[in-house]
Structures are given as C-alpha cells and as structure tokens.
C-alpha cells in the first residue's frame, strides 16, 4: 500500500511530458514486449514439443529400415542353398588334392562374388565362408586379418547357439581398405538333408547404409547419427566419424525410446536391429531452431524499430502538448516576478490554444490595469520621493551647517560664503517641487553643488569630475536622478576606503541619452548586485524598500516615465562600480532659456 502511495506521489510530481512518456511505456511498450515474449516462448515450446514427438517417429521408421536391411543380409545365405554344387563343396572334407582344392575354392569364390556382391546389395564389403578349416572369401575392397582360427571360434559359437550374430570391427581383426566401418553378420550353414553343420558365412555390411537411410531427416550438418550397442555401450556407427572403439557411459542416455533435451541438444532414441542396438539422433537446439532464432531476431529488430519510431512520434506529440504549457508556466512565473510584457502566440485551436488565449487576455488586462493606475502610482512615487528628500535634507543640512561652523571658527570667510551660496542654490532647486523635469544643465549644476558641499566637508577624501558635450545640456531629464546615485557612491565608498573619486560622463546617441556615474569605491557585492538587478527588472510601479531605495526609486521613475526600454544598469569595474542611466533624447520646452555654453569641470580638494 505504501509503495503505491509513494509511486502516486512521485508520478504526480513529474512533468506532463514525463507523465505522457511514462504512461506510453507502461501501457504500450511493456505490454507489447511481454506479449511478444510470451508468444515467442509459447511458439518455441510448442515447436520443441512437436519436434520432440516427431523425432522418435522418424527414428522408428529409420530403425525399421535398418532392421530390414540387416535382415535381408542375414537371409542372404539362403542363396547358397540354391546351388547344389556349392553345398557339395561344403560337404567335402578339407583333405583333398591341391588341384581339386584350388578348383573348389575358385568355384566357391566366383559364386560368392556373382551371387552376393554383384547381384545384390551394394552395401556388402565382403562375404566369407569358413568350412572344415577352409576359407572362401569374396570382397569388394582389399582386406587383411580375420584368421581361420578366429573364424572357427565364432563358428563354433554359432553352431551351439543355432542363430546369427553381429560383430563390430573392434570384435575382430578384420580390416578393410580405408578403415571402412562395417557390421559383420555371422550366419551358421546347416546341411538340410542330414542336419549337419557345414560351416559359417560372415557378411561384412558397410554401415554407410545408415547414412543413406537417415539422410532424409538430417536437416543440418550438425546432426549426429549413432548406432549404439546397448549391452556394451560401444558405438557401431557414428556419422561424425569419431573413434569406432568409443564407449558411451551408461547414464548418458537415460531412456530407451523417445526424445529429451540434454546439454543444449535434442536427443532422440529408438531400438534398432532386434532391440540389441539403439539408433540415436543428436542435434544442437541452436541449429535445430535456427529458423526460429532468425525469426526471433527479425522480430526483435522490427519491434525495436517500431518502439523507436513510435517513441519518437509519441515524444513529438508529447512535446507539442507539453511545450506550450511549459512556455505558459514560464511566462506565468515571469508575471509572478512582475514582468507583464510578453504574450504568447496562439498557433492551435485546441485546449492549450484556448488556455493561451485566456493567458494573453489576462496579461492584456493586467497591463491595462497597470496603465489605468499609472497616474495614481506616479503620484505615490512623487510623494515617496518628496518624503525621501524631506528625510535626507535635514541630515544633509545639519552636516553642512557643522561644516560652516568649522569654517567660521577657522576664519575662512570666503569658503563660508561659497558654502552658503551653494547651499542656498540647492535649497531653491529642492523646494521647487512642482517641477517634474529639468534641463540636463540644471540637474548637473545641482549635483555639482552637492559634490562641492560634500568636498568642503571631506576635503581630500573626495574628488570628482564631470564631462559632457555641449549638445547634451539642453535636453530634459527627470529631476533628482543623479543625486541619489552620487550620494550612494560617497556613502558606501567612504565607509571602506579613505578616499573616493567620482566621474560623471554624458554620452548621447541619436535617440538616447546615457548618464554614467563611475567611482573607485569597493563596488557592488555580488549578492547585493544580483538582488538589485532583480529589483530593477520589475514592472514600473513595483518597488522594494531595500537599503538602496534611492537607486530603485530612480530606476522605477525612469521606466514609469519612458517605458521598459529605458532604465538603470549596474556594473563592477576594475576599481569600483559603474551606474548607467538610459533616458530618451528630448529637448526642453519653451518655458525658459538655457545657457548656451557648458564646460567640463574638474574639481579636486
């Protein structure tokens, strides 16, 4: 239960695209893969069962054919009884004249060759007749071994058993040319008139006939056919041509008839040659099911191609569904941060498209609401600015009066007069609260007055310089946009350093006026700078009551008056900080005349 709850919680926290892809994987890819696996497994199992049942049937047919072939060879001695001359030769004693003995051997071997080798089975390698210490032989290949004594031993055994026997090459010393494998079938010869033992016929049957019989179901070269003697475990025939004297362990083939899987092989067994031998069929399963494995490989490749194609297609669809929602979320976060400029293009008419339309409508309404409340907010800003001036001026005037007091005590009358004159000009400029815009000349004059008084107070600790082109001085700028910046530079610079220098430069482009205030103080702390830049990027009318309220106030006033294309930028230089004000290039009204000439002032204590 708790695992299910954890899975649901994690699933809920996933993004929409990941949810779609995970759902597709769980509902499509995994079920299809499992279905394909179960189908292939069931198909393979059914094929194994079918082949496992079919192999014994094929082996049974092959075994019957082998039995017939062996039985046909076993019945071949009957042909000898068809020739009364051959029976008479076998009845005669071995003690004869040499010429007569040679004639009888020639006659017998010629008959054996014509009746057994040339007019019957081509699988016979040779025919041997042992009778009364005589050997008659007709072979298709040269041979060696198989002495009279050895033949006599087997003959006596057959005489006693009154039946046939099958010998393997390792049971005798008979060796044919090229070491051909054979089954040596021994059959006793009886005189049917007087029931006396005439001798023994041995027929060497080439076991390659097994290859011919089983070749119909040897689908692969990897298949192995063996004829195994059950009692001794000796291999009579091996299609792999391994050593003929190899002995198979008793536990290798646990059943006598049927099929089973063993060591990665399919093994089929059936009795052969009157139950004394076992016909064994072995084939590796990987070879037997090669076609199935090829089908499996093709199926896997096609399945992977299908998965890749469908996954790409589904990813494309999921991306097209989730990406507009993601952009909508990102824009909503921007709105949450106070940015209302950007709307989203509506490219679809589905639910996401209608949601985007609603979002755009909401943004437009918010911007309209901000615009409608613009004047109210502007008045609030002016009231805040006035309150700020009221808050700053008493402290500034107190410090200035203290400076005048020190100058009077020091008897510096001229300096006292300059300070009082400058202070009076500043007070007139500050008390004229009905004026929102002034010329650049008046604003610079006010800042120079402010810096002059501060220089009277700090002496060599403060130096400053202003530089501006003549053409820039007849443009309009908002009142009190330079003094808060300069005041911050003096305040934070002299807190950590013994002296500070301030540069004020004016630069203009065809449609923009850039005011740069640069100092060699400590610069902006990176954390403070980041926070300030976030505040400066807010929509007009949204301000923060931070320690740099004067800087934020100036930036907010510029954006409220001129729009978001203008404002304030901050920068840390190699020695101190740089603040730039971006204003539109606008000339003053006709309300008053301005001085035509301005010069660069370089004031040092």
Quick summary:
It holds the Pfam family HAMP. The chain is 51% helix and 20% strand.
Descriptive account of the structure:
- It is found in: Cell membrane.
- The chain is of the alpha+beta class and 605 residues long.
- Helices cover 51% and strands 20% of the residues.
- A 6-stranded mixed β-sheet has the order 18-19-17-16-14-20.
- Strand 11 and strand 12 form a beta hairpin.
- The protein starts with a helix and ends with a strand.
- Mean pLDDT is 77; it is low at 588-605.
Terminal CA distance reads 80 Å
Average predicted local confidence, pLDDT: 77
| Count of extended strands | 20
Largest sheet: 6 strands, mixed
User: Can you give the helix content as a percent range?
Assistant: 40-55%
From the spread of the alpha carbons, the general shape counts as: rod-shaped
Radius of gyration: 59 Å
Question: How many H/I helical runs?
Answer: 16
Pfam families: HAMP (PF00672), HATPase_c (PF02518), His_kinase (PF06580)
Protein name: HAMP domain-containing protein
Subcellular location: Cell membrane
Membrane topology: Multi-pass membrane protein
